[in-house]
Amino acid sequence: MQAFVLRILDVLLPAMILSLGLYVLLVLCTGGTPGIVYGLKMVSWKVHVPIIVLFALMVLRFPLRYRTVSRQVFFAHEGVILFSVFLIIYLANGSTLGSNDTIPARYLPLSILREGHFDLDAFPFLHTQGTPYYLRVVNGHYVSAYPVGAALLALPFYLPSALGQVSPQSPLLPHLDKLAAAVIVALSAVVLYCALRRLTSRRMALLITAAYALGSSSLSTSSQALWQHGPSQLALTAALYGLV
Fold it and tell me: Which end of the chain has the smaller Cβ count within 10 Å, N or C?
């Protein structure tokens, strides 16, 4: 009986992962606009729940594949497991932090992908009431007052929405902003762990990484919106890894 159940799960889990992945992609492409899309009813623009379930199922596949829950399973896939756990935690509150500081990074990926340039002229709702502090006017164009590194790192997350012509004023955009930030910070934690594994024991590397990922502003701030913090952390941890 147990073997039969395991065989069913071997088939069911990949199917669920594929279905969730397609659902997330459809939401990103359409903005989650209510209606029928390719025969599926799209009723939500919040992608955090399906993404959390998706990564939880991906982690669950490892002990299922090895037919055991042990440290050896973790050791064989520690990078993927750590990334998944941190990303799930970062997305778990289901909310976004409102801050004008992140607005340029939220819309720049759409401008780069759709218009091929780095100005924000295509978003008049950002500057109809004058030039806000987070924008500058340079050569007659509205541009970000902040560096564009965060927006460049977020490009892959915005590609489906850019191709799908999702409205810049869609409620999906703040969640895309957060998703990109959460992935960047979770990735920085994994890179830090890889660097620490070259310097200390696995136990100590896990403790330090957990403190960095869950006991600092990585959890409360950097992973919640596209400030400069997250991309800077990823760049610094990559530099540390390169040094060791």
Answer: N
- Between 51-60, 81-90, 178-187, 195-204, the lowest mean confidence (pLDDT) is in 51-60
Return d(Cα 123, Cα 32) in angstroms, integer: 21
pLDDT at position 27: 87
**Angle CA(203)–CA(89)–CA(47) in degrees, nearest 5?**
145
CA nearest neighbour of 165 among 100, 95, 113, 229:
113
> Rounded to whole angstroms, how far apart are CA atoms 87 and 85?
6
Q: How far apart are CA 131 and CA 211, in angstroms?
A: 40
Report the pLDDT value the prediction gives residue 34, as an integer from 0 to 100. Answer: 56
Query: Taking the CB of residue 41, how many other CB atoms lie within 10 A of it?
Result: 9
How much is the pLDDT for 19? 87
Query: How far is residue 31's CA from residue 27's CA, in Å, rounded to a whole number?
Result: 5
> Does residue 89 carry a pLDDT above 80?
yes
Q: Which residues, other chains included, contact 91 with Cβ-Cβ below 8 Å and sequence gap of 6+?
A: 48, 51, 52, 178, 179, 182
How far apart are the C-alpha atoms of 118 and 240, rounded to whole Å? 30
Percentage of the chain with pLDDT > 70? 88
Task: Please state the separation of Cα 102 from the chain's center in Å.
Answer: 15
Distant-in-sequence, close-in-space partners of 112: CB < 8 Å, separation ≥ 6: 118, 151, 152, 155
91-99 long-range Cβ contacts below 8 angstroms, 24+ apart:
91/48, 91/51, 91/52, 91/178, 91/179, 91/182, 92/48, 92/52, 94/46, 94/48, 94/49, 96/174, 96/175, 96/177, 96/178, 96/224, 96/225, 97/178, 97/221, 97/224, 97/225, 98/174, 99/225, 99/227
